[in-house]
Design brief:
- By secondary structure, the protein is mainly beta.
- It has strands at residues 5-7, 10-13, 18-23, 32-39, 46-51, 58-60, 68-73, 78-83, 92-100, 112-113, 117-122.
- The termini are far apart.
């Protein structure tokens, strides 16, 4: 498992943008697929987006397609979630998670989780 640290959350008005970052000091982090998840108030955690370790594969929830972009900079051991056109329903605690993969794929489960960062979108 690896330690993950999220940052970039905050309060933004509807229609605004935020960029979340997920970093790790693990030297093999570049071989980890990373996913972003969120848990809205009173609701279950849901998958938002994920990226393979080389970045060749990305997946998105239907609710964020066209608005959110996941990317990574392996020279900085950081994965980003650019969130544009934010809506009040995007309000949630956002978590990043990681899983070591041999191949450039998005795995079905993630073993390591960060502490989360709050995103609040006001109407």
């Amino acid at each position: 498992q690896v330690q993950l640290v999220e940052s970039g959350g905050g309060l933004v008005q509807a229609g605004g943008s935020l960029r979340l970052s997920c970093g790790s000091s693990e030297r093999t982090f570049t071989h980890y697929a990373v996913g972003w998840f969120r848990q809205p108030p009173g609701k279950a955690r849901e998958s938002v987006a994920a990226i393979s370790w080389r970045g060749g594969v990305t997946t998105y929830a239907n609710s964020v397609k066209g608005r959110f972009t996941i990317s990574r900079d392996n020279t900085k051991n950081t994965v980003y979630l650019q969130m544009n056109s934010l809506k009040p329903e995007d309000t949630a605690v956002y978590y990043c998670a990681a899983a070591y993969t041999t191949f450039d794929v998005v795995p079905p489960t993630f073993a390591s989780w960060g502490q989360g960062t709050q995103v609040t979108v006001s109407s």
